[in-house]
Every structure is written in structure tokens, then in C-alpha cells.
Amino acid sequence: MCPAIYFYVYKKGICDKMKAIIAEDESILRLFLSMTLSAFGVDIKSEAQTGLEAVDAVHEHKPDVAFLDINMETNEAGLDACEAIKADYPDIKVYFISAYPERVFQERLSLLSYDGYLEKPVSKELLRTFLIDNALII
Q1: Quick one: DSSP state of residue 7?
Q2: CATH class of the domain whose range is 17-133
Q3: What is the pLDDT of residues 63-105, one digit of tens each?
């Protein structure tokens, strides 16, 4: 029987916690994402402030999912990180969380393999809906 805390379960299997990394340069938002995702039963393996740290975290932890901001230490650092992650680990799902509408990066995004895009500002309910819509939690 699953403990009550695992109400939101990764669809990979009963009580399997989805492993994730978060890359966000804004510390308050990074903390919010970490706490909220954890509350939904996601196992946060690492938090990064830059795209390079995100790639290193993926190599170290091999998560199921990476949540990436796009503009971190440089413009489009998250896009560069996605490209590097997908080159080595094509099965890892990559979701962008950005203050910019998806159309702003459409040309570059069309060349990448990514799994979803969430526009800031992010609330707990919006994040929950996004996770359910992308079949990350049930």
C-alpha cells in the first residue's frame, strides 16, 4: 500500500517517485518549484542555477525529467542545456519554464526535442495541472 504522501504518483509504476532536476537562476522560484514538486511526490535530485550545472546534474543523477528555465546565465542557456541533455539521454523528458511566451523561441525550439513548455508566473495549481496534462502525475 502506498503511503498517503504518494497521492500523486509517477505513472511509471505504483509508488515509483519521478526523479527530477530543476534549473532556475531565480532562487525564490527554484525553491518554490522544488517544494511544490516535492509535495506532488516528485523526488528532486538536484537544483541548478545554470544550464551547465543542469547538464552536470543530469549526468550525475540520470533523472526522469528536467525542468529548465530558458534564460539563465546567458540567453537561451536552457535551450543549450536541453540540446546537450537530449543528445546523451534522449529518453529524459525536458520541460521549459520561462517568463517568455513559447513563440519567442519558436525558431530554436523547432530544432529541439523537448516535451513541454510552461509560461511564468507559475502557481501551485498551474504546476499541478501542467504535470497532470503532461501525464507526469495522476
Answers
A1: S
A2: alpha beta
A3: 999 999 999 988 899 999 999 999 999 999 999 999 999 999 9
Nearest to 8 by CA among 137, 129, 95: 137
The answer to whether the beta carbons of residues 136 and 41 sit under 8 Å apart is no
Q: Spell out the long-range contacts of 111-117 with Cβ–Cβ below 8 A and sequence spacing 24 or more.
A: 112/79, 112/82, 112/83, 112/86, 113/82, 113/86, 114/82, 114/86
**Which residues have CB under 8 Å from 56's CB, separation 6+?**
48
C-alpha 110 chain-centroid distance: 19
Residue type, 45: K
Look up residue 106 and give its amino acid: Q
Q: Enumerate the domain spans of the chain.
A: 17-133
The two beta strands, 93-98 and 43-48, are unpaired
The reported pTM is 0.88
